[in-house]
Design goal:
By secondary structure, this protein is of the alpha/beta class. Helix content is 39%, strand content 14%. The protein contains ten helices and seven strands.
């Protein structure tokens, strides 16, 4: 009898695993994105940005009644892709570049959890609370929209996405608030490794793409950070740096224009296409 019960239990587990595996579409490529304001999206999107191929989807990160979107549901990736009132982000044209160049059988899904003005410490799994406690109120209010823990929020959304597709990469644009911090690459490595561990991912299968700050030629106030970002592949072998050269910026010297985001996003996309061999 005990043997029969064990056999039935094992059969049930195998059956459930088979159902779960069948639900996951290997041709649905998922990409996680996180960072601060440039990844969140600081430029107003325009009419040309509203036409989106239905193969490009976004997993809504928070409830946005004004957009008729609910957290945890997939929607066509019409901006905004982060919170309810954010702007154009590199992720918009990253996704477009992939669907334009991959077979029609491939769908692209993105998840963007970003917080303007934050340091990389906000995404440290075990230390984020001490950072938030000393943060200004405006940042605390943005963090609250992610249930007080943006890292955990991203992981939970990613787990939801894994029921339907396969995580293929992680996009990062952050560093303005860590300008001059030579420990930044190691801090990013810690976040990256935690994401891999918590989501059961292999580093050789999930590259990290990190974008440069606004360049010195464009008046970038944090352009010196690009030298530190350039060392990231020395710390994370499967990391790639996305150049911001000639990506148009706005007058604050911190953020890209809509045209700049489009160009930078396409560069993220081109890099990912080269990695996956297309």
């Amino acid at each position: 009898m005990k043997f029969l019960l064990k056999w039935i239990s094992l059969s049930f587990v195998i059956l459930c695993f088979g159902i779960s595996a069948q639900a996951q579409d290997k041709n649905f490529y998922i990409f996680l994105a996180f960072g601060q304001s440039n990844m969140e999206g600081a430029a107003k999107f325009e009419e040309q940005d509203m036409d989106v191929d239905p193969r490009f989807q976004v997993l809504q990160s928070i409830d946005c009644s004004g957009l008729d979107r609910e957290k945890g549901n997939w929607y066509p990736a019409v901006p905004p892709l982060t919170r309810c009132h954010t702007g154009l982000t590199p992720v918009d044209y990253f996704g477009r570049t992939l669907v334009e160049n991959l077979p029609d059988s491939i769908r692209i899904g993105v998840i963007n959890v970003s917080v303007g003005g934050c340091r990389i410490e906000l995404f440290e799994k075990d230390n984020y609370q001490s950072y938030v406690e000393t943060a200004p109120d405006w940042l605390k209010n943005m963090v609250k929209e992610y249930d007080g823990n943006p890292y955990h929020h991203l992981v939970e959304l990613a787990k939801t996405a894994q029921n339907e597709g396969v995580i293929k990469g992680i996009l990062l644009h952050q560093g303005e608030s860590n300008t001059g911090d030579k420990a930044w690459p190691q801090k990013v490595k810690g976040v990256y490794q935690n994401l891999l561990s918590d989501l059961g991912l292999a580093s050789e299968e999930v590259p990290l793409l990190a974008g440069e700050m606004v360049s010195a030629a464009q008046g970038g106030k944090c352009a010196s950070m690009n030298a530190i970002i350039a060392t990231l592949p020395e710390v994370i072998p499967n990391a790639y740096v996305i150049s911001s050269e000639d990506c148009e910026a706005v007058s604050d010297g911190l953020h890209f224009s809509a045209a700049g985001y489009r160009k930078l996003g396409r560069r993220y996309g081109a890099q990912m296409l080269s990695i996956i061999g297309n």
